[in-house]
Amino acid sequence: MNLSYKNNLGLYIHWPYCESKCPYCDFNSHKTESINEEDWIQAYVNQLHTMKEMLLKYNVKFNKLNTIFFGGGTPSLMPLKVIEKILNTANKLFDFEEKIEITLEANPGSYEREKFLDINQMGINRLSLGVQSLNDTNLNFLGRKHNYKDAIIALELAKRTFSNVSIDLIYGLKNQKIKEWEIELNSIIKNFQPNHISVYQLTIEEGTKFYSDYKKGLLKIIDEDLSADFYDNTNSLLENFDYKRYEVSNHAKNNFECSHNLNYWNSNNWIGIGPGAYSRLWSSNNNNKRFEIENYKSPKSWLSKNIHNAEFKKISFIDNSETNIDILIMGLRLSKGIKINKLLDKKIIKNEKIINLINEKIININTERIKVNKNYMIKLNAILQQIIN
Length: 389
Description:
2 domains; TIM Barrel; 22% strand; 14 helices; three-stranded antiparallel β-sheet; alpha/beta; globular
């Protein structure tokens, strides 16, 4: 098995607070509250130092840190002092690659926009902007605090400040017309030319307000046929503007794919700090087994556990068969699929369910790669669930 791909190392920082909780969001996010900046700085720094010790203890092979991603929550709400301390500590402990990708998620609100120049000067070189929509009715339905005007101002400022801008959009809402969506997407591309676009159809996730409303019959969703039309038209439009779909929901101009997310999808090494963050790493001990580090999810619990010395909720080695399935299902999210030599045990591709998917031309396979046929990417979740089961 080729192990060189495991030498990449990414860092994920979770900031758990948002101005408000969106009704569709199932992430570990909480309404913002007053915090002690020094306590949070100390907790993050403690985790970074302990992570370095873990890499040495388990003999994790890595080069320099190649990606950093501030996610949440709304990390653009983080105090600048906290961001700066995390970056400085990470650089000191792990060393940055010369062309490291450092992403921070932001919303178009005025308070976040005020920070764009400051965070760019700190070294953030990629901004992921949660636009979601340019339609005020849809923004209100999605529980977003910004409006069309806020989004336009944020997009203009982001393009002036950052050389790499990604935007998130949600589509496929009940009563949304495909033509209206196409006009909206066209407008964004022509006027702002983002380097990267993540487009997600609205999904109802358990534990969200939308899930509760859906169960009560208060919320309707589009049917599968219309969903497929939305998906196909979106992909065609983006392709016409030279955006390559490199993952089921992610499109990028040439050389602007999100390197951090590729670490996940390619099952490389990453460390996660902050409430609820996970790490997955390859240990050169224990026959190159993969292990996982889980953080406490509650912000208050996480802070209290890490303010003096870093403490994780759980550290566990992952069974090789589970790792093998994880490598496969994460890699199949990518348009080009995954290299077969990354699999721990290639016998998995001889599994009856996978053979059936190949025979049905849902999955393509050759001597080097296995991937989902592009015509079936819209059914990816169902395909992956079939493989898992």
